[in-house]
Design goal:
Blueprint (H helix, E strand, L loop, with lengths): L2 H10 L2 E8 L9 H23 L4 H8 L3 H5 L14 H9 L4 E2 L4 E3 L2 E10 L5 H23 L3
Helix pairs in contact: 1-6
Length: 153
């Protein structure tokens, strides 16, 4: 196995997948009615973002402005280790149905919230040049994270 293939296997998993995560603003002291309202609002926002994407909105801008998953947000929504058993079954099932380059047409509910997923490619079809680009982007992201982590609190 060459370095590019091992990078894909170790970082991206079976598929190269990006997502936007919208979390309901729920707390333990909320009533059931308030929790449902917060969940409905998160679902509505996720649906709105899908409509925005269908109308040509920029994926990167939506990830930066709306996704509530901080690590993947730094990587344009890229989910690390997208492997069956490692990610939620609902996400995995949706990605299997999507063709490469397409995003889901409905929000996917998981315990974390509502996801909009984009299946970039199945990893065995990635070209070496794309893997090199991802490797370089990952190195830059890791450098940024290291700088942020070194700032005294």
């Amino acid at each position: 196995m060459d370095n590019a293939s091992s990078f894909a296997d170790s970082f991206c998993g079976e598929y190269r997948v990006k997502h936007i995560l919208i979390k309901p603003k729920i707390s333990n002291n909320m009533s059931a009615e308030e929790q449902k309202k917060a969940d409905d609002e998160a679902f509505a926002l996720a649906k709105k973002l899908i409509v925005d994407l269908e109308n040509g909105a920029n994926w990167t801008n939506l990830v930066r402005n709306y996704s509530e998953e901080p690590i993947s947000r730094l990587r344009d929504g890229l989910i690390q280790n997208f492997i069956r058993g490692y990610v939620d079954d609902a996400l995995y099932a949706e990605v299997l149905l999507l063709p490469d380059g397409r995003f889901c047409r409905k929000p996917i509910k998981t315990p974390q919230g509502y996801h909009i997923v984009l299946r970039v490619k199945k990893n065995d079809s990635l070209a070496n040049s794309e893997l090199k680009k991802e490797e370089n982007e990952l190195e830059k992201t890791n450098e940024t994270v290291n700088v942020v982590n070194s700032i005294p609190v």
